[in-house]
User: Fold Tyrosinase from Streptomyces alkaliterrae.
Amino acid sequence: MPQASRRTVIGVTAGALAGLAAAGPSALAAGLGRAASADGHRPPATDLKPFDEVYRGRRIQGAPTGTAGHHGAHGAHGGHGGHGGQAHDFGYRVTVDGEELHVMRNADGSWISVVNHYETYAEPRALARAAVVELQGAALVPLALA
Assistant:
């Protein structure tokens, strides 16, 4: 197997960096799925449309709640402690077979749930579908925040 020369490695690296620089921050933002406006604030969850469908035999529903929960529409959550029994949903409610799926909108506009806490989704419908797949037919147990 031929070895790459130093000149070849430097040339390939420079070409890759030039390509990334040419793509600019707009390509990076698009790739990350950012939902921020020019002032740096992302739109509230009310910008999302409601849905109601049967997916893999489970009824999933989602709709804006009309309120922004206790976090408002600014930034990510500050951890999991001290919820005070309030919704942690950034103004959007998702249910699976009538049981609430606890969801949260991240600062970058992506969504997570208690079922898929380490996987992000672009919108709540995709999040609900992923939860149905992960549940594998099991019932969604209500989450009690103490």
